[in-house]
Design goal:
The protein is α/β, with parallel strands linked by helices. Helix content is 39%, strand content 17%. Strand 7, helix 9 and strand 8 form a beta-alpha-beta unit. Helix 6 packs across helix 7. It is globular, with a radius of gyration of 18 Å. The chain starts with 8 loop residues before the first strand and ends with a helix.
Length: 303
């Protein structure tokens, strides 16, 4: 069972016509960590266990639902398309609403791209940046290198498993497909099935969206982002904040060489942590505890 947090307070933040669901854990008078989830992932991706580690070590935490995820509501994507940069502006709106001038920003996967854009657009508000299992937000020499045959095979196997996951509006009916996909995304670490169950269940039970059974708007936003990476070439050289990059060595969704390794290579100030066995996701308690401790140690160094 997860360690439940009893002191969390929720607040709706308005940003560009969206009402963004946010949850604060701990005091915002402490140094605040803003947690940004990946594509289609709700706020509770950041588990109570993980948030509790940050909280117990003196950090306030804010986790939130992106546009088109969880309990956040707003315009239809087709009526008002948005970019990942718009999601970075949402992060700033959240800090504004809570009266926070500066924060440590942490992002996973697409959330790591959001975090990079936030740090580039709001350097004065970024105390530090932590990116987990994500690549550079801009084209780089590392991302220019083509995939190897082995890397192509690994990705093809992942996409094949992803394609077998065809969720319906019925949770129990859809769970086996999600479980196969999460197992692949978890790398070689043991899969804590109750963590997976809780995360997937909340995709259904705490959702104002109907995006589970059709292409998610975030995939379109990510595609727009990929198509404009060349335009952002050189962006990472503008980021000078203290940076921690965490990359799973068994990330079968994002080739590590073009993910965290490439990102850290572009940021001379970055500290790179390669995690053996960890995949793109980390549905494993021991791994979550380790990540929490790594991040706390890094944040403590910024004091």
């Amino acid at each position: 069972m997860q360690n439940k947090i009893s002191t969390a307070l929720t607040q709706i933040v308005k940003s560009s016509g969206y009402e963004i669901w946010t949850e604060r854990v701990g005091s915002v008078t402490h140094p605040v960590v803003l947690l940004t989830s990946g594509a289609a992932a709700h706020a509770r991706f950041w588990t109570d266990l993980f948030c509790g580690i940050l909280n117990k070590n003196g950090y306030g935490v804010i986790r939130y639902d992106h546009r088109d995820v969880g309990l956040t509501t707003g315009p239809d994507f087709l009526d008002r398309p948005y970019t990942i940069a718009d999601l970075a502006h949402d992060a700033a709106a959240i800090l504004n609403c809570y009266g926070i001038s500066q924060a440590h920003v942490v992002g996973h996967s697409m959330g790591g791209i959001v975090t990079q854009l936030f740090a580039s657009m709001y350097p004065e508000r970024t105390l530090s940046m932590t990116c987990i299992c994500c690549g550079p937000a801009a084209a780089t020499a590392s991302t220019d290198i083509p995939l190897t045959p082995e890397e192509k095979t690994t990705l093809a196997e992942t996409y094949s498993i992803n394609d077998t996951n065809k969720p319906t509006e019925n949770f129990e009916e859809s769970l086996p497909g999600f479980m196969r996909m999460w197992k692949r995304w978890n790398g070689t670490l043991p899969l804590d099935e109750d963590l997976v169950y809780a995360f997937t269940k909340e995709m259904y039970t705490r959702s104002a969206q109907k995006n589970l059974i059709k292409p998610h708007p975030h995939m379109r936003a990510v595609r727009l982002g990929l198509d404009t990476m060349e335009e952002r070439r050189g962006l990472l050289q503008k980021i000078s904040v203290p940076t921690l990059v965490i990359q799973g060595e068994e990330d079968y969704l994002l080739v590590p060489r073009r993910g965290g390794i490439a990102l850290a290579h572009e940021l001379p100030q970055a500290k790179l942590e390669l995690i053996p066995g960890m995949g793109h996701m980390f549905f494993n308690r021991e791994c979550q505890e380790m990540l929490g401790r790594l991040i706390v140690d890094f944040l403590d160094m910024q004091k």
